[in-house]
Design brief:
Elements lengths: L6 E7 L6 E7 H4 L4 E4 L6 E6 L5 E6 L6 E6 L1 H6 L2 E5 L6 E6 L1 H21 L22 H16 L3 E2 L7 E6 L2 E6 L5 E5 L3 H4 L8 E2 L2
Parallel strand pairs: 9-13
Antiparallel strand pairs: 1-2, 1-8, 3-4, 4-5, 5-6, 7-8, 10-11, 11-12
């Protein structure tokens, strides 16, 4: 009997032209090497790379920062979740959408509404008005390896049901905070803080068993 490999849908929004780019990724494709999902405008791309420890690294263009943010996920998260969202660490806006087609379409639609609201709230006319022309050194992610590691720890625990908060919504994301990285609930606002100044220090969190936001 033939073994049926899994596949999942993926999408991101190009920071240059604003188009949402969709792709279909199968396990066979990731058996070899890096995959690249290019925007039709030719000015951005999303890279998907298998790591040596059998995880999946994604380098995703950010529609707000115009910089790529990195995410490292397990194959289970990548192929088995109904929907997985990756956000910009500087703003509560999703930039990565992975899952079933209907779920991805729905999440992209909600993202469109969120971007329009942000544009309205900021009093500007278009998305490009929110984007930086040049970024100062302190505006760029201080250590992508730290953020990658903490995101992997949190999302791995979340997939196993070991992240919780007072409202038990299960809608958690990460953002930078002074001195470290903060996990927060999108519904009740509860938070959990990871204090970490380097990748070596962040590795201490690999042994954490659960997270309770307060």
């Amino acid at each position: 009997m033939a073994i049926q490999k899994k596949h999942t849908h993926i999408a991101y929004r190009c920071p240059e032209c604003g188009t949402v780019i969709y792709g279909l990724v199968g396990e066979f494709a990731l058996d070899a090497s890096m995959m690249r999902l290019n925007c039709t405008c030719g000015k951005s791309s999303l890279d998907i790379t298998p790591t040596n420890d059998k995880k999946i690294k994604l380098s995703v263009p950010c529609v707000l920062c115009k910089e790529n943010h990195n995410f490292i996920v397990s194959p289970t998260l990548f192929f088995d979740r109904e929907i997985f969202l990756g956000g910009c660490p500087y703003a509560n806006i999703d930039i990565l959408f992975i899952g079933g087609k209907d779920k991805v379409d729905s999440a992209v639609e909600e993202n469109e509404k969120a971007l329009k609201k942000l544009i309205g709230d900021m009093g500007v006319e278009a998305l490009e008005d929110l984007q930086p022309i040049d970024m100062d050194e302190d505006e760029i992610l201080p250590d992508a390896a730290v953020y990658d590691l903490i995101r992997f720890v949190v999302k791995d625990l979340e997939a196993e049901g070991r992240v919780d908060c007072p409202c038990h919504s299960g809608r958690y994301d990460l953002r930078y905070a002074p001195g470290g990285i903060q996990v927060f609930c999108e519904d009740c606002g509860a938070t959990y803080f990871f204090s970490c100044a380097s990748a070596a220090a962040a590795e201490d969190y690999l042994d954490i068993n659960e997270i309770s936001l307060k």
